[in-house]
Amino acid sequence: MPFTKKILSIALLIISTLSYSQDDNVSSILVKKYAENSFQDNDFEFALENYLIMYRTDKQNVDINYRIGICYTETNVDKAKAIPYLEYVVSHNNFPVRAFYYLGRAYMYNYRFTEAVEALYEFKMIGIDEAYLLEADRLISKCYNALEYINQPVNVTFELLDTTINTPYDDFNPFISPDGLSMYFTSRKTYVKDFEDYISNVFYSSINKKDGKWESTISLPTNTYDNEEITGITPLADKITIYADGDYSTHDIKIISKNKTKFTDITSEAIPNINTEGLEPAGCFTADGNTFIFSSDRKGGRGGLDLYIMKKDIISGLWSEPENMGTTINSEYDENFPNISDDSKKLYFASQGHSGIGGYDFFVSNYSTDMAVWSTPRNLGFPINTPLDNTTISFEADGKTAYIADNRKEGIGNLDIYKLKFGAEEIQPKILMGTVLVKTNRGEVPYSEDFLMAYATIYDMHGNIYAQYEVQSDGGQFFATIYPGTYKLEVNFSGKSGGFSKSITVSNEDEFLTETVVLNNLE
Q1: pLDDT band at 20 (very low <50, low <70, confident <90, very high)
Q2: Which of 212, 312, 316, 362 is most buried per CB count within 10 Å?
Q3: What is the pLDDT of residues 422-473, one digit of tens each?
Q4: For residues 49 and 9, is the Cβ–Cβ distance under 8 A?
Q5: C-alpha to C-alpha distance for 473 and 264, rounded to whole angstroms
C-alpha cells in the first residue's frame, strides 16, 4: 500500500474510534470519499477498509453491503466474506443489477458451484450488460466443469516449503531445475523506501546436499526497481526469462544470461522483436535454446493473450517470425505462462479457457513428433487446479515432482510455494459409500429431494477441500473416490454448517468403506 494510503488508513482508524466528536461529520465525509475514489480506481483493498468503517454505523445500507461484497470478491483478503453481504443485497427489492453476478462468483470461489450456477442464471434473467452476460455464461461453464473435476481428485500431495523460501508476502512462479536441487522464483518481499511499498523481484536458492534443506535465498543481481517476475529457465539456468513492468521496462519480457555466477541482460540481442507495444507477460526456451514460446496480446490473435512460437535457424542463427500456436492451444480467452518440459514433448501453460474450473487453470499438451502437432490440452485436475488463479507449474525430470504457488490453509502468506508429489499410477483410489439420513418428527428418514440440497465434502488434514460430492436425492447416498490418507468428512445442507463431521483414515488395504450420516432437518 502506498505511503499516503497507509497514513490515511491509520488516520481513519483513529477517527473511527472517536465517538460524539465535533469532527464526526467531517470524518464520515472523508471516509466515504476515500472509499468511493478507491473503488473507482479498482483499489479494492483500500476501498474495503473504508466501506467497513461506513458499515459499522449503517449496516442496513444496501449499497454499502454491495460495495463490500464486490471488494471481497475482487481481493484475496477472504473471498468467502463476500457472501453474506451479497446475500443481504439480493434479499431486497431494487438491488443493483450485477449483485447476482458477484454473488455467483463468490459462491464459485468458495466451492459452492451449484449455488453459483443458480445465482448466475438469476443474473442472466435480469442482466442488461452484454459483456457481463457473456462472462456469466463462461462462469457457468466453469462451474459445471468444476462439479466434474471435484468428484475425481488427482492423487497428489502438497508440501509447504519452509520459511527459507516462503515469507508473509506473496511468493510465486517457482521454476525448479531438472535434478530438483535449485530453484528460481518470485517474491514480493523487497521493500523500496522511496516508494513506501513492496515490489516483486526474482530470487534463487539451492538445496544443501548435507541436510537436504534450502539455503538462504539470493536476489538476482539484475533485479531493478521494476516489478520483475520470473517466467522460465533452461535446464542449466543459462537463460532466464523475466516479465518486467515499471519505469525501466513496460509489460516486456527480459532475457537474462547466466555464465557461472555472472548474470547479464541480453534481451536486445537474444531474440529481436519479441516485445511489442502490447503485453508480453511470459516466455520460455526449450532445453537446447533454439525454440522460444511466449504469450502476447499482439494483433492477429484469437482473443486476449495467445501463445506464440519462434525457432532459431541453426545455420544462420536467425530467429523466425512469431507464429501463433493455433486453435488447438489458443482459445478465445487468455493463454499464458508457458513452460516446456526438458525433452520438449510436454507444454504446460495456464488458460482461462478450454475446460477450466476457475480463473487460470493448469493445462498440458503433448507434442507428437510423427505428426508434428500438439495434442488437445488436458486439465491437470483438482485439487491442483482450484476456482482461483493457478498460473505456473514446474516439474523435475522425473515428471512426478512439481512446484506451484497456491493460497492454501497451511500457508504463511497469501501465495506460497508448494512441492507436489504425484502418487504412483498403479495405486487405485478407494471407494467410500455414504448413506445420509435426516431426523424428522417421523424419525430418521433417507435424504430426498424434499430437503435442502446436501453435499459431502472431504478435507485434507490442513482443512483444504480435497473432493466434494452431491448427495443423491433417490436414496440419500454419495460415492467418494479417495486415495490413502487421513481426511475429515463433512456432510451439510447447502450453505449451512454444523452438520455431520468425522475424521476418516483410508489405507492401502481398504477396498470399500461405508459411512452412515445423520443430519438434523433444518426446514
Answers
A1: very low
A2: 362
A3: 987 778 889 999 999 999 888 889 888 888 889 999 999 999 999 999 999 8
A4: yes
A5: 63
Instruction: Output the DSSP codes for 180-234.
Output: SSEEEEEEEEEEETTTTEEEEEEEEEEB-TTT--BPPPEE-TT--SSEEEEEEE-
E-strand ranges in 423-484 read: 430-440, 443-446, 454-459, 465-470, 477-482
Q: What is the model's pLDDT at position 523?
A: 59
On whether the CB atoms of residues 362 and 355 are closer than 8 A, the answer is no
**From CA 7, how far away is CA 352, in angstroms rounded?**
37
* Average pLDDT for the chain: 89
Per-residue confidence (pLDDT) for residue 26, from 0 to 100: 57
- Per-residue pLDDT tens over the stretch 320-370: 999 999 999 999 999 999 999 988 899 999 999 899 998 899 999 999 887
**Pair 101, 127: CB distance under 8 Å:** yes
Q: How distant, in Å, are the alpha carbons of 125, 145, 262, 405, 468 from that of 149?
A: 28, 6, 45, 20, 9
Give the orientation angle of helix 99-109 with respect to helix 130-149, to 10 degrees.
20
Residue entry with cell 445423520: 518
Quick check: 272 and 319 in contact, CB under 8 A? yes
CA–CA gap between residue 110 and residue 81 (Å, rounded): 10
Q: Classify burial at 17, counting beta carbons within 10 Å of its beta carbon; exposed 0-12, middle 13-18, buried 19 or more.
A: exposed
Dig out the grid coordinates for 99 from the structure. 449483485
Sorting pLDDT into bands at 50, 70 and 90, what band is 273?
A: confident
CA distance 379 to 351: 9
Q: What residues contact 208, with CB distance under 8 A and at least 6 apart?
A: 214, 215
The reported pTM is 0.87
Joined together, the cell numbers standing for residue 291 give 525454440
pLDDT of residue 209: 87
Q: What are phi and psi of 238, to 5 degrees?
A: -80, -15
Instruction: Give 376-382 contacts, CB < 8 A, sequence gap 24+.
Output: 376/328, 377/328, 377/329, 377/349, 377/351, 379/145, 379/149, 379/354, 379/355, 380/154, 381/149, 381/152, 381/153, 381/154, 382/146, 382/149, 382/150, 382/152, 382/153, 382/154, 382/357, 382/467
* Cα separation values, 400 from 32, 348, 425, Å: 52, 14, 10
SS3 82: helix
Amino acid at 126: I
